[in-house]
Amino acid sequence: MRRRHKAPPSPLPQRDGIDPVRLRLPADPDGLWATVRDHLVERYANAIGAEQVDAMLDQGRVVSADGPVTADEPYEAGRYLFFHRDFAAEERVPFEVGIVHRDERVVIADKPHFLATVPRGSHITETALARLRRELGLTELQPAHRLDRLTAGLVLFVVRPGDRGAYQTLFRDRRVRKEYEAIAPYDPGVALPRTVRSRIEKERGVLAAREVPGEPNSESRIELMEVRGTLGRYRLLPATGRTHQLRVHMNSLGLPLLYDPVYPQVLGPGPEDYSRPLQLLARSLEFTDPMSGEPCRFESRLRLSAW
């Protein structure tokens, strides 16, 4: 009987709010892999090794729509396999994810400092997405955009997969007015308000983004709201969404954000200091809901600790 190669739903449930890996076996015109095991061993040789691949197959942890996959099954290009990764233990970020708004379409969450928005790198189960899926019982929840791990504040999550594209398009087309608040040094010699435009590039694997010559691809409006001694409280209005954009632009003005571990200087690796969070908060989101057509504005209930 010929197998169907349309992506089937996963036969495995989520684990700790994390979806199983979905793998579509690639074409093999040279006949390199006689069995499913041969391909998995080669594919994951550096990540987990042959011994772990064999253990997962022996334990029935690699499955297809038809059930557990055995090591000696003939290789078949286009077939879908599913399995759960083994996650390293993660230190729990000692702050909760707040809920500012929830309805049948969206969840507006208040993400704390130090918590990643989505699984990436060494942050998998300790992410806002995984936590909310577990705590709210919304297994299909997905973010419409992302917020840096060190930044706190509002993130819009979509409840139903079919609605996600409409909300992502809002952010892609810059139809969401985002307002941030930041604490940084006060310098009376820096004239504000002003709009900063520059070209920002970030290399994969390099922590800091940098400004380079060329056509601007980023724009931020920077306003001074209040002064207390040597510190200022700033309103930041990004018109674009480059990685670390607000941090880069503030640093370029000689006003690096308080407790920033990357700008102006990258600090060495070490344990998280939860008492010194980056003083940057996604304060508000404002947009017209693409499903209802209603105007929406949401404000964070968090506060920057240094003010």
Explained architecture:
By secondary structure, this protein is an alpha+beta fold. The protein has two domains: 21-83, Structural Genomics Hypothetical 15.5 Kd Protein In mrcA-pckA Intergenic Region, Chain A (Roll); 98-299, Pseudouridine synthase (2-Layer Sandwich). Helices cover 14% and strands 28% of the residues. It is built from five helices and 15 strands. Strands 5, 6, 7, 8, 9, 10, 11, 12, 13, 14 and 15 form an eleven-stranded mixed sheet that branches. The protein has a two-stranded antiparallel sheet with strand order 1-4. A two-stranded antiparallel sheet has the order 2-3. A hairpin with an 8-residue loop joins β10 (194-201) and β11 (210-212). The longest helix has 10 residues, at 49-58. It is elongated and about 70 Å long.
Described by the principal axes of the CA atoms, the overall outline is elongated
**Category from helices, strands and their pairing:** alpha+beta
Low-pLDDT runs of 5+ residues are none
- Main beta sheet: strand number and arrangement? 11 strands, mixed
Count of alpha and pi helical runs: 5
H/E series: EHHEEEEEHEEHEEEEEHEE
CATH homolog superfamily of the largest domain: Pseudouridine synthase
Could you estimate the helical fraction of the residues in percent? 10-25%
